[in-house]
Amino acid sequence: MAVETFAAIDVGSFELGMKIFEFSKKGSIREIDHIRQRVDIGSDTYADGKISYKNMEELCRVLREFTRIMKSYHVEKYRAYGTSAIRETDNTPIVVDQIRQRTGLEIGVLSNSEQRFLDYKAVALKTKDFEKIIEEGALILDIGGGSIQLSLFENGKLLTTQNMRMGVLRIDEEMMEMEPKISRIRELLSEMTEHHLETFRELFLGSKKVRNLIVIDDYVSQIIQKRAAYANGGESGHNTSRLEIAQFNKFINELHSKSQEELSGMLGIPEENAKLMYISAALVSEVAQMCKSDKIMAPGVTLCDGIAYEYAQTHKLIPDTHDFVGDIVSCAQHIALRYNGREDHIKVLEKLSLEIFDSMKKMHGLGARERLLLRIAVRLHDIGKYVSMSLLGESAYRIVMATEIIGLSHSEREIVARIIKYNYDDYEYQDDKHGHNMNEHIDESELVIAKLTAILRLGNALDRSHKQKIRNISVSHKDDLLIIGVDCEGDITLERNRVDRCGSFFGEIFAVRPVIVKKSSVKK
């Protein structure tokens, strides 16, 4: 049976990790090696904004060793990503270029939302009864070096995902200034995190209880798994990654009076990791207390697992077991609700806009990812009114750019923000803003934004009154006309006028003019 060998590399804040996988033609993934090497580039970045020369040397040395290991396994494909420690440096392009020049590896830099989405994918695809867990209610706590991510699920739907800049390395940097004993860390950390967690609870939890807390991290997860296995009599299996909260709190209390050296010996981990493990455990305890969880779970996944699953999904090497696109849309939907978006208008606008998009595939040449960006733009298109009724476009743009949407890169979020802005404001080609000649360079994203803006404007025009008069449409192309046949209720004079008004920009983008043809009246 033919297999494909794949390497996933995580250039993390505190350590570098690489996993080697085998993908079979039958849709299975098998991990065959996991290499980890400590290189603390995060402390440099969070303290000084740059990676030190010494750590850059060590980083490249380890990556060269990774390439040697990849060759020994005859790795055919790889993906390598940097996270917050590289993302937050003052000279990210220089760091990435140096890595390429000195190791031959192409390193991508993940936005926070992309990184957390890969972690989440690994949990969803590796946890046997994930759908049942999120149906019961769950919160994924993803602890990184620079920040933590809280992703809340209710009734099987992703409600929100929020990032907080209090990762273990960032907290450790602040703790070092105070030089507390291990016994004082938990108390200080509680004071540092209380305001952030209380705000999250007030905005998204209220009095609700979240039964399942799922932890992703580099330190405490392994301890949870060991304690869970011990609680289950040493038996193996997927349930051994689950621990009752009371058992976890008992474990934390056992650590409370230990020194860093004693923690290292007790847990069998390097002494330099002991303090970070304790900070991570204390964070878990604080979040568990906030959401009143019954169980804590540690699937033991890493970013490398998420990278591998993403690659396998993209290349159709494994079956889809969860609707990840639905999670992104659900997240956007709840953002819209937070800003009083009108669900009745959004529902009809999404239907109309997607029908226009789908009927024009040969004209716009866009794919599934652009279709998703249009759906998100539709969901968020009227959130600007929450801030200003007269500056809808600019207000919506600022909200979207300040709001993380899990699964979208920063550039994709900007595409969505600009589509929404130009739904209301005059279209402004980005190159024009910088005084460049559009004939010299046309950015692909500029074309995507222009095309999706034109489609959103047309869809919005078809429900200009927000009374959902037009329920169904059919779209056809004849000569220089885009003929929109509509089934409608009542008079559509306002909608006709708005379609005519947006026709000029639509024609500029697609070289056709949209016109409405009334097919029939639909009885109530």
User: In the CATH scheme, what's the topology name of the largest domain?
Assistant: Nucleotidyltransferase, domain 5
Biggest beta-sheet profile: 6 strands, mixed
Number of domains in the coordinates? Answer: 3
CATH architecture of the largest domain: 2-Layer Sandwich
Q: What is the strand tally?
A: 14
Q: DSSP helix count?
A: 22
> For the terminal residues, how far apart are their CA atoms?
60 Å
CATH uppermost class of the largest domain: Alpha Beta
Strand order of the largest sheet: 8-7-6-9-11-10
The percentage helix is 40-55%
CATH homology superfamily of the largest domain: Exopolyphosphatase. Domain 2
Residue stretches low in confidence (pLDDT < 50, at least 5 long) are 236-240, 433-438
Task: Tell me what portion of residues adopts beta-strand conformation.
Answer: 15-25%
> What's the alpha carbon Rg, rounded to whole Å?
26 Å
Mean of all residue-level pLDDT scores: 88
Judging from the principal axes of the Cα atoms, what is the shape?
globular
